[in-house]
Amino acid sequence: MSNPESTAPFVAGGTVQAGGGVYVERPADALLPRLCRAGEFAYVFTPRQMGKSSLMIRTAEKLIEEDIKPVIIDLTEIGASATADQWYRGVLEKLADQLELRTRLADWWESHRTLSVAQRFNRFLTEVVLLDVAERIVVFVDEIDTTLRLDCTDDFFASIRYLYNTRATTKALARLSFVLLGVASPSDLMKDRDRTPFNIGQRVDLDDFTEDEAVRDLGVDRDRVRAVFRYTSGHPYLTLRVFRSISEQPLTSGIEARIESLFFGEQAGKDTNLQFVRDMLTIRARDREAVLRRYRDVWRGQEVPDKEADPVSAWLRLSGIVRRAGGRLQVRNEIYRRVFDDTWVGKNRRTNWARVAALGAAAAVGVGILVAAILFPFALIQKNEAVSQAQRARQAEATARNAQKVEQEQRSIAEANARNAANQKTEALTQAEQARLAEAAATKYGQLSVARGLNVHSLLAKTQGPGLIGTTFLLGLESYKHSPTLDALQSLPYDLPLLRRLQSRLAHQGPVNSVTFSGDGRLVATGSEDNTARVFESATGKEVARLAHQGPVNSVAFSGDGRLVATG
């Protein structure tokens, strides 16, 4: 039994073992080890914070006691941006390290480079792992949903299926089995719909705590468990979160008040579990509208059958917001029912008109008309057919007024957004406008150059040299970008005599290591291997200052007001 006054026993989030907390046993704690002993393939696909990782660690500990070799691979450590070669090798490196194989993976992997990564993966398991290790091996692959973001993992699941099916001809493979854990469904794992779906293994369900399980393992009296379960229905994370809070700060005004402070109001946006459910229903949902519409039906108490192969129902189950009950879906607990209520669904299904209005008042007017067009026929349908024509006319007039009101509201939002945008502008031109003006300057300079017979490309090519011969052109353009004036444009060098004069002014006696502009773009500072730093007017090339050093100048920078120069 645990001490309810201690903060240690109740670990909410992460593995219980890592936090030194108590463990609540469920039927899965007997089923999964039994499948592993039998060499069966299994998968634990449930929402987050249901206890998958804790179940995995506990099962692995049992297997070690029975001389079965467990291997735990957390795919989040490998990452979702790895190449196919890096990903498969990363999986095998973890396996080789934990099994302490005699064969060096790096040498073996390179010596079989002519094979595909999937072939190397299969052969390493059959030709190396099973030869080096005589015991039964169970490979736990956690966070399997990270593979959904990769394009190279279809072969991984195909390999697991191949290893399972090949047991008929290769008896040693009976000593190797896999357990997959994560927030996914078997149909999601194989992204290529032309390939056979991943359809092997036995599902292990992780159900909510029962009252008896909680009383037995948490060491809390039944009345208190029952009071918490009225809100959590035994959800592992939510239940442990409440009991942990109580152990940290004893109750002063009842369990209802504590739950209110933990999960409702502002706290609803901070709790990690509620954030996960929210993201699953909105951001991560492939068909957000279908998911929210189906959940709304469940929330309203409609009879929604739980169809195993239906992707929308499967997604709702993976989010954790619903559970199976008598062949139907129902909201999982009272906390979810209150946080994700009918109003929340309506807000998240509704188009964000404020964002639309930001595009302009004209768009808002169109939205208002659209709303009117939608509301009007629905209003008429709801009226009894016996309503007089005068009543219909009044209804239409009221609908039109509502539409006008919506239109006015959207116009107000658009105007407010426009004012905000105007207030945010500074006297300086926007980057886009600066780019346009710079492009215009470059175009004009190009035209002047062509008119005078200059080759712009050859001029720019000179910027690669140790001096600043052709850099004058670039400095002028940069100056124009920062301070677009006609004087700056007209001062751009476009004849050879001027270039020759500027060459003598700008050229260092060694390579230039650093060039930087002042905030207004009118000055440029350079640092060179010739042990000097210089400051020039960027538009004319006139030298303003020269700073001598005892060694090469590798970096230069202006202060914010452009009055000071720092050198390195």
Contiguous uncertain segments of 5+ residues = 1-8, 351-388, 423-472, 477-504
**What's the number of extended β-strand segments?**
13
Mean pLDDT, as a whole number?
Answer: 76
State the helical fraction: 40-55%
Content of β-strand: 5-15%
**Tally of individual helices:** 25
Characterize the main sheet.
Answer: 5 strands, parallel
Distance between the termini: 66 Å
Taken from the alpha-carbon principal axes, the silhouette is extended
Question: Any chance you could write out the topology, listing elements then pairs?
Answer:
Layout: H1 16-19, H2 28-37, E1 42-45, H3 52-65, E2 69-74, H4 84-99, H5 105-111, H6 117-132, E3 137-142, H7 154-165, E4 176-182, H8 186-189, E5 202-203, H9 211-218, H10 222-232, H11 236-248, H12 255-263, H13 272-281, H14 288-299, H15 311-319, E6 322-325, E7 328-331, H16 334-339, H17 342-349, H18 353-357, H19 361-382, H20 389-424, H21 431-451, H22 456-461, H23 471-482, H24 486-490, H25 496-506, E8 512-517, E9 523-528, E10 532-537, E11 543-548, E12 556-558, E13 565-567
Parallel strand pairs: 1-4, 1-5, 2-3, 3-4
Antiparallel strand pairs: 6-7, 8-9, 9-10, 10-11, 12-13
Helix pairs in contact: 2-3, 4-6, 9-10, 13-15, 14-15, 14-17, 19-20, 21-23
Outline the structure in words:
This protein has 568 residues and is α/β, with parallel strands linked by helices. Helices cover 51% and strands 11% of the residues. The chain is built from 25 helices and 13 strands. It has a 5-stranded parallel beta sheet, with helices on both faces. A hairpin with a 5-residue loop joins strand 8 (512-517) and strand 9 (523-528). The chain is extended. The two termini are 66 Å apart. The model is unreliable at 1-8, 351-388, 423-472 and 477-504 (pLDDT under 50).
